[in-house]
C-alpha cells in the first residue's frame, strides 16, 4: 500500500458530479429524435385502409427497469437515442424508405416500425410479407452502433426484445384500433421471442465454452506521440455464426446463462496461449472477473506458470479489472493482488470515468494503468466537460504513479485532443483494430482506414 493516499486532496463528490455532468451531456446529445405515434396515427390509419401498411415491428425496452435504476435515466436516454438513430438510418437499407419509424409515446420505451410495400403489389403481398426475415434484418442493423459500446449498453441489449404483427385491414374495423391491436400483438410476440432467445443463447454459450469455439483478438495499445505499440489487449469474440445466434456480447450472454466464470477462464487461458510475439517490454493485458483472484488460485497459477515457462517477465502481464467491481469483491481480492504485485505483475483498472471513479478502489488497488471509459473519449474534441474529466483522471493517474490509457479512439480529432491534454497512451480503431495474433507479427500501429 502507498504510505500516503494520493487522492487525499481530491473530493469524491466533485468527481461524481463531473462524471454525472458528462453522462447528462451524452444523454442530451443522444436524445431520441423520432416522431411520436400520435403524430403519425392519421397517416398510418389511411395507409392501413388502403392496405399499404402491412405490418408492425416493435423494439421493446420495457424490461430495462432494473438496468435504468442501476445506470440512471441519462444512460437510458442515451440507449434509446442510439436505438432510434439506428432505426431511422435502417430505412433504405434494412427496410424500405417508405416505412415509418416512431416512438410509442413521449419519453417512451418502444420503437415502432410500420412496414409498407409497393402499391402495385397491394392485392397480393400484404398476406405474404415475411415479417420474421424483415425483423432479423432490422435487428442486425440496430446492433451496429453498439459494436464498440461499453459493456453496460451490451447488458441493456440483452433485455431488448423484438416482436412483429401483421396488419390485415378489415373494412368493418376502425384502422386506428387495428394499429393499436397490432402493436399489442407485436409486444406479446416480443415477450415470446425474448424467452426463446434466452434458451438459444444458453445452448450456444455452453457449446462454445466446451469446444473452445472462441476467437481471440488482440488490439494494440499505442504510445500516441511515437505510434509505437506498448502492448496488446486480448479480446474474446464469438465465431460469426455463433455471434449471429447470440445477438449480444458474448460475455453478456454467458452471464445470463450463469457461465460467465467458465467463459472468463477459457478466454484468459486462450489469450495467453494464442498471444502474438512480445518483445522484452511489450505487455499483454488480459481481462479478469473478480473471482479470478479468489482462493484457491489454481487457474491463475497455471496461467502464470505458462507465462514464465515461455520466458516472459512478470511486468509484461497486466491483469485488467473493471471499475464495476463491488466493494465486497475489491476487499476479497486485495490479498491476491498484493501478492501478485510483489511478484512483479501489473494491474489496470478498466472503464474509469463515467459511473464515477471510485477513489478508494483506485487507492487500494494502486493500478499501474487507468483505462478511460470509451464514452468519455467519444466526442471529447467537442466537449468541454469531457476534456475536464479527462484532465481530472490524468491528474489522478499521475498522483498514483499510474499511466492513463484512452480507449475507443476513432478519429484524428479525438487523438489530437487527448495528446494535447497530456494523455500519451491510446487504444481504438484509429490506432489499430482487434485482429488475430498472426496479423501483428509484421505490423506496426498507426492510423487505420
Mind explaining what this structure looks like?
By secondary structure, this protein is of the alpha/beta class. The two termini are 44 Å apart. α4 (73-90) packs across α5. The longest helix is centred in the middle third of the chain and has 37 residues, at 175-211. The protein is globular, with a radius of gyration of 24 Å. The strands form 2 sheets. Strands 5-6-7-8-9-10-11-12 form an 8-stranded mixed β-barrel, surrounded by 5 helices. It has 2 domains: 12-19 and 212-440, EAL domain (TIM Barrel, Alpha-Beta Barrel), CATH 3.20.20; 32-200, Alpha-Beta Plaits, CATH 3.30.70. Helices cover 46% and strands 16% of the residues. The chain has helices spanning 12-30, 37-49, 65-71, 73-90, 131-143, 151-157, 175-211, 240-246, 250-256, 260-273, 298-309, 327-342, 359-365, 374-377, 384-399, 412-421; strands at residues 53-60, 100-103, 110-116, 161-166, 214-223, 228-238, 283-287, 317-322, 346-352, 369-372, 403-406, 425-426.
CATH class of the largest domain: Alpha Beta
Query: Could you give a short account of the major beta sheet?
Result: 8 strands, mixed, barrel
Global shape: globular
Strand % is 15-25%
Low-confidence stretches: 119-127, 444-449
Structural class: alpha/beta
SSE string: HHEHHEEHHEHEEHHHEHEHEHEHHEHE
pLDDT averaged residue by residue: 86
Q: Looking at CATH, which topology of the largest domain would you report?
A: TIM Barrel
Radius of gyration: 24 Å
Question: Number of DSSP helices?
Answer: 16
Amino acid at each position: 500500500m502507498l504510505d500516503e493516499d494520493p487522492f487525499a486532496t481530491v473530493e469524491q463528490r466533485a468527481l461524481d458530479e463531473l462524471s454525472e455532468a458528462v453522462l447528462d451531456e451524452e444523454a442530451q446529445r443522444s436524445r431520441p429524435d423520432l416522431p411520436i405515434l400520435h403524430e403519425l396515427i392519421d397517416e398510418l390509419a389511411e395507409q392501413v385502409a388502403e392496405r399499404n401498411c402491412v405490418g408492425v415491428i416493435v423494439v421493446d425496452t420495457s424490461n430495462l427497469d432494473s438496468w435504468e435504476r442501476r445506470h440512471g435515466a441519462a444512460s437510458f436516454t442515451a440507449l434509446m437515442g442510439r436505438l432510434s438513430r439506428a432505426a431511422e438510418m435502417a430505412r433504405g437499407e434494412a427496410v424500405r424508405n417508405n416505412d415509418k419509424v416512431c416512438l410509442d409515446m413521449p419519453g417512451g420505451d418502444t420503437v415502432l416500425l410500420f412496414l409498407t410495400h409497393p402499391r402495385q403489389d397491394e392485392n397480393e403481398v400484404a398476406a405474404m410479407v415475411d415479417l420474421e426475415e424483415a425483423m432479423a434484418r432490422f435487428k442486425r442493423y440496430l446492433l451496429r452502433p453498439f459494436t464498440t459500446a461499453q459493456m453496460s449498453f451490451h447488458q441493456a441489449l440483452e433485455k431488448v426484445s423484438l416482436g412483429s404483427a401483421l396488419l390485415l385491414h378489415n373494412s368493418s374495423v376502425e384502422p386506428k384500433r387495428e394499429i393499436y391491436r397490432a402493436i399489442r400483438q407485436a409486444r406479446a410476440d416480443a415477450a415470446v421471442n425474448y424467452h426463446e432467445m434466452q434458451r438459444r443463447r444458453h445452448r450456444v454459450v455452453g457449446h462454445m465454452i466446451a469446444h473452445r469455439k472462441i476467437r481471440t483478438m488482440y488490439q494494440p495499445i499505442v504510445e500516441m506521440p511515437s505510434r509505437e505499440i506498448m502492448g496488446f489487449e486480448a479480446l474474446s469474440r464469438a465465431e460469426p455464426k455463433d455471434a449471429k445466434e447470440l445477438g449480444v456480447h458474448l460475455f453478456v450472454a454467458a452471464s445470463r446463462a450463469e457461465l460467465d466464470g467458465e467463459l472468463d477462464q477459457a478466454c484468459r487461458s486462450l489469450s495467453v496461449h494464442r498471444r502474438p510475439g512480445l518483445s522484452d517490454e511489450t505487455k499483454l493485458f488480459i481481462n479478469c472477473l473478480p473471482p479470478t483472484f479468489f482462493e484457491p488460485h489454481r487457474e491463475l497459477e497455471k496461467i502464470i506458470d505458462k507465462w514464465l515457462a515461455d520466458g516472459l517477465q512478470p511486468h509484461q502481464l497486466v491483469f485488467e479489472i473493471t471499475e464495476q467491481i463491488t466493494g465486497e469483491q475489491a476487499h476479497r481480492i486485495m490479498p491476491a493482488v498484493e501478492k501478485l504485485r510483489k511478484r512483479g505483475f501489473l494491474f489496470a483498472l478498466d472503464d474509469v470515468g463515467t459511473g464515477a471513479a471510485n477513489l478508494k478502489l483506485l487507492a487500494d488497488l494502486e493500478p499501474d494503468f487507468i483505462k478511460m471509459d470509451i464514452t468519455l473519449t467519444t466526442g471529447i474534441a467537442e466537449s468541454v466537460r469531457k476534456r475536464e474529466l479527462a484532465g481530472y483522471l490524468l491528474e489522478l493517474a499521475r498522483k498514483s504513479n499510474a499511466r492513463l490509457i484512452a480507449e475507443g479512439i476513432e478519429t484524428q480529432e479525438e487523438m489530437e485532443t487527448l495528446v494535447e491534454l497530456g494523455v500519451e497512451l491510446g487504444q481504438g480503431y484509429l490506432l489499430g483494430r482487434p485482429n488475430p495474433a498472426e496479423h501483428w507479427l509484421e505490423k506496426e500501429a498507426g492510423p487505420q482506414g
